[in-house]
From TrEMBL:
Protein name per its UniProtKB record: tRNA (cytosine(38)-C(5))-methyltransferase
GO terms (BP aspect): methylation
Catalytic residues of the enzyme: C82
Family (UniProt): Belongs to the class I-like SAM-binding methyltransferase superfamily. C5-methyltransferase family.
Keywords on record: Methyltransferase, S-adenosyl-L-methionine, Transferase
Coiled-coil residues: none
Superkingdom of the organism of origin: Eukaryota
EC numbers on record: 2.1.1.204
Lineage: Eukaryota, Fungi, Fungi incertae sedis, Mucoromycota, Mortierellomycotina
NCBIfam families: dcm
One function term, GO molecular function aspect: methyltransferase activity
InterPro entries: C5-MTase, C5_MeTfrase, C5_meth_CS, SAM-dependent_MTases_sf
Family matches, as Gene3D superfamilies: DNA Methylase, subunit A, domain 2, Vaccinia Virus protein VP39
GO cellular component: nucleus
């Protein structure tokens, strides 16, 4: 076996430490040399769980290239601000001022004396269609990296939460060699297997099927794009529509859906009368006026919507609402409440009484927000293991906000494991298993 390598990691846009936890869970050894973030609240949570030693509250673009070279880090983990690329944002891409730090990193990468050998970038679905993605790809090619792009959702590793994200994994081939599996030149929808005996190369994830070119680009067009720098939009127009990632399809397939866990194990509180629930219950005014707009789930279900930083603040498209009264039919209860509200003329005593009765009906469902710790568990943070918590000074809204800006730890840990494993390590692991010895998680590298 190759000698165990201890990786030196720079964690950019470190937030509450999602990448830190993901690296720890990846099976590889090493240390976070420095973590960069300018969000004070996120840094307080990070320091609370990981300590202040490696934390740097500095603008990434204000750090000169010489200091990055001095760190001599062989791994860069990053999750740049997503607002320039979200469907609810202005989608200005690299023109957005929040992309400035990412562009700076792309500018200095080819100029560095000690560039990283490995890079992992995470962002929202939509990044793959931006000019920032084109800059990323052009920079990686110029700097001698081999890379694989992916769209992955936590549903694929059995977690009942929809959080489709773009990932780019890159290796400096001249220094550390190629990936265990050949790169496809396309945007794929699965994490390749480290098992060299697996001829198909797909992990035994929930959606183990290779869905092909998930971005809507054909293989030839994607290769052309990587070689020529043609923009995503230009290439897409010239190609036939291919299969795209569809989280609903996973849950619609009976066999695949059964491999996704139910929400039950992620729920901490089910008692409507629990005094701790008061701050999580849906306010009466919101329940009566906007309740039907919520995505309402029960613990027997195998899905929940993506939790965003606006959860607990806005109603639509910010995350699911949990129904504690499992036996109550949600749709029927809302229908009955709506019928009551429609019976009387507005602003009459009868309308007031009907609204009060409708509210009582809706209250009977026991609707509440997921607690911040339930959200954290769905996002893979080790809260249940006692390794993650919030400082007492962090308000509930702040907790939801920093979680909404974070990553799914479990997904990223699998990606880091794949990124940092060399072909020699995968071959050694396969040989160990073949000889009847239990394999240890890959921690070796040819670096």
């Amino acid at each position: 076996m190759t000698e165990t390598h201890s990786f030196r990691v720079l964690e950019f846009y470190s937030g509450i430490g999602g990448m830190h936890y993901a690296f720890n869970e990846s099976g590889h050894s090493g240390e976070i040399v420095q973590a960069f973030d300018i969000n004070t609240t996120a840094n307080e949570v990070y320091a609370h769980n990981h300590g202040k030693k490696q934390l740097s509250q500095r603008n990434i673009e204000a750090v000169p290239i010489e200091l990055y070279d001095q760190k001599n880090a062989d791994v860069w983990l990053m999750s740049p601000p997503c607002q320039p690329y979200t469907r609810t944002g202005n989608q200005e891409g690299s023109k957005d001022t929040r992309a400035k730090s990412f562009l700076y990193l792309m500018d200095i990468l080819p100029k560095m004396k000690n560039p990283p050998n490995y890079i992992l970038l995470e962002n929202v679905k939509g990044f793959e269609e931006s000019d920032s993605r084109d800059i990323l790809v052009s920079t990686l090619i110029e700097a001698g990296y081999e890379f694989q792009e992916m769209l992955i959702t936590p549903l694929q590793i059995g977690i009942p939460n929809s959080r489709m994200r773009y990932y780019c994994l890159a290796r400096k081939v001249a220094k550390v060699g190629s990936f265990v599996r050949p790169v496809t030149g396309t945007l794929i929808g699965y994490i390749p297997s480290l098992d060299l005996e697996d001829k198909e190369g797909g992990q035994e994830f929930v959606d183990g099927r290779k869905q092909g070119d998930l971005s809507g680009l054909s293989t030839s067009a994607a290769v052309k794009k990587q070689k020529t720098g043609v923009t995503t939009s230009a290439v897409t127009k010239d190609t036939e529509e291919a299969s795209k990632p569809d989280e609903d399809a996973i849950l619609a397939d009976p066999m695949l859906a059964l491999k996704v866990e139910t929400l039950e194990k992620y729920i901490d509180f089910r008692d409507v009368n629990d005094p701790r629930m008061k701050q999580y219950m849906i306010p009466d005014k919101t329940l009566l006026k906007y309740g039907r707009l919520f995505d309402i789930v029960k613990e027997t279900m195998r899905r929940s919507c993506c939790f965003t930083k606006a959860y607990y603040h806005f109603v639509e498209s910010t995350g699911s609402i949990f129904q504690m009264e499992q036996d109550k039919d949600t749709a029927t209860t809302f229908d009955e409440a709506e019928a009551l509200k429609a019976k009387a003329e507005p602003e009459t005593k009868e309308a007031e009484e009907n609204n009060a009765n409708a509210l009582e009906l809706l209250r009977s469902l026991g609707l509440r927000y997921f607690t911040e710790f339930e959200v954290a568990k769905l996002m893979g943070f080790p809260y249940a293991e006692g390794k993650f918590s919030f400082p007492k000074s962090t308000s509930l809204k702040q907790r939801y906000r920093v979680l909404g800006n974070s990553i799914n730890v479990k997904v990223v840990s699998q990606l880091i494991r794949y990124l940092l494993t060399s072909k020699d390590d995968a071959s050694s692991a396969a040989s160990t298993i073949e000889n009847g010895v239990e394999a240890v998680p890959a921690t070796e590298s040819t670096a």
